[in-house]
Recover the amino acids of this structure.
């Protein structure tokens, strides 16, 4: 058996529903799944409230029109964060309004499941609301202070993402080797057709479901203090198919599973390990991606580095979320090869002390 085959064989696929945590606060069974089969219960987490982390992140991109939006609501225990980021891909710029709150410790009100309920956050700087109902995700948001490159001020929007029940997604539950009560439960949903849009000042930006897609990063967990991760995502159309992927690594013990996965017409194709190659002194230089099973081989041309740095005493974060174009090949479970050229997505390198 090849080394790549051995890596894949070690990955544990979960196929039946089960509680995420047992009575000791450990993951009941670690691995990956095509649907969110683990049942999260905040009360079962064996950690102080200020150590529990919950978040929802959405990105919606329009390759043809060269714009996008990124929306975040996060409750990290001792700090809360919300952000609205307008991506002007044609100009290679981003325009963001964000805000912090102290010690939310679960009061933000995130639903326990990724296919239920509503989460909202609001203050003087911005308003964000994410709701799920019957296979649709509705994202409402506004920020009076957001200004685009032309000087237009104030963003208001509503976007609907379609998520059919049969659509497969990336789901993973893993823990840290140094602390098995520290866990990462994550769902990534790619290739959700997007409609609606937003305005900035008098300028309108409209998504069309036949060409534009959104993606969700849904997370719940109890993390260790310092972690660095690499994550990439893309959703679009290629060779007559809805195509997307989620790639990532860098934290927790990933021996039970990787989170690397392709999606073609709503069906998941599991990958082994993917490695990111980038210039950490200049993230706008070209990137490369290689895989242990030779099923994900890509070049990446950056457009804009959405970077930020936070230093609040013990809480620190350095983030580079780079939007750009993937070009290369992916190989499906049945051996079919799909070639992409200038396929819009993002990749990031994030280091957190949180």
């Amino acid at each position: 058996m090849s080394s790549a085959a051995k890596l894949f064989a070690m990955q544990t696929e979960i196929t039946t529903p089960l509680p995420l945590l047992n009575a000791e606060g450990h993951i009941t069974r670690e691995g990956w799944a095509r649907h969110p089969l683990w049942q999260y219960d905040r009360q079962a987490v064996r950690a102080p409230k200020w150590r529990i982390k919950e978040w929802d992140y959405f990105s919606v991109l329009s390759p043809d029109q060269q714009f996008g939006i990124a929306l975040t609501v996060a409750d990290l225990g001792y700090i809360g964060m919300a952000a609205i980021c307008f991506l002007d891909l044609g100009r290679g710029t981003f325009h963001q309004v964000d805000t912090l709150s102290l010690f939310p410790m679960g009061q933000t009100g995130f639903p326990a499941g990724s296919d239920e309920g509503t989460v909202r956050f609001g203050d003087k700087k911005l308003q964000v609301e994410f709701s799920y109902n019957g296979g649709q995700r509705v994202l409402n948001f506004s920020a009076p202070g957001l200004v685009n490159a032309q000087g237009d001020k104030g963003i208001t929007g509503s976007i609907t993402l379609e998520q059919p029940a049969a659509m497969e997604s990336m789901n993973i539950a893993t823990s840290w080797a140094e602390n098995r009560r520290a866990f990462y439960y994550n769902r990534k949903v790619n290739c959700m057709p997007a409609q609606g849009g937003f305005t900035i000042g008098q300028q309108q930006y409209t998504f069309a479901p036949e060409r534009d897609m959104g993606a969700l990063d849904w997370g719940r967990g109890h993390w260790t203090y310092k972690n660095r991760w690499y994550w990439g995502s893309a959703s679009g159309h290629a060779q007559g198919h809805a195509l997307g992927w989620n790639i990532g690594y860098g934290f927790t013990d990933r021996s039970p599973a990787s989170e690397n996965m392709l999606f073609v017409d709503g069906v998941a194709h599991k990958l082994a390990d993917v490695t990111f190659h980038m210039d950490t002194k200049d993230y706008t230089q070209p990137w490369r991606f290689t895989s242990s099973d030779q099923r994900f081989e890509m070049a990446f041309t950056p457009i804009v580095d959405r970077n930020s740095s936070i230093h609040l005493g013990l809480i620190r974060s350095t983030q580079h979320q780079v939007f750009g174009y993937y070009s290369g090949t992916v190989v499906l479970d049945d051996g079919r090869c799909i070639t992409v050229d200038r396929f819009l997505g993002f990749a990031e390198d994030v280091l957190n002390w949180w």
Remarks:
- The chain has a mean pLDDT of 95.
- DSSP finds one helix and 24 strands in the chain.
- The radius of gyration is 19 Å.
